[in-house]
Description:
Elements: H1 18-34, H2 42-49, H3 53-59, H4 63-77, H5 87-102, H6 106-118, H7 122-150, H8 159-176, H9 183-210
Amino acid sequence: xxxxxxxxxxxxGRPRSERSHQAIISATNELLNERGFVDLTIDxxxxxxxxxxxxxxRRWPTKGTLVFEAFSDQFLALQPIPSAGxxxxxxxxxxxxxxxxxxxxxxxRTLAGLVAEVQRDPDLAEVWRDRFVVRxxxxxxxxxxxxxxxxxxxxxxxxxxxxxxxxxxxxxxLLQSHLPLSDGFAQTVVDxxxxxxxTNHAGTxxxxxxx
Length: 211
């Protein structure tokens, strides 16, 4: 009696090669340093990484998504959450850290390039929102949550607005280049944001005490 043959379906696609992945990311970072975001091309990345363009496009559908992958983890690693014991000092240390990373640097120019590219690349826009904006804001929100726990600010403070005011001002100067990202700028932004938050907190406390 003949045993029935068993059909084995071949796995679809090729297994991801960690070596080629790292080669592509390294080549991308090298070219960002040499040429910048705008002038970087997938052809050059493929040539330097010694892979085909098909290999790159199989993993990253656009130049923007590739550059994002090379940029994001490195950027976030340089944005540790400070723990100075007060909201003012935490926000100031965080904003100073952001400015240090982006002011006159390849990383700053890449960040600006990605922000511009998000406006015209739907694939990048989705990745940017889910894997950068949400991740960064969750990361930074810790500073406000700790201030609430310490009783510095009211627990109904809008943390999203605080982050918008803090980093929105810095992104505006990064993208417009109309005024410097100076330490004086950082101190003024933080002074203004914290003064507003603490004033609102004082008002809330006064109302609760007064009944």
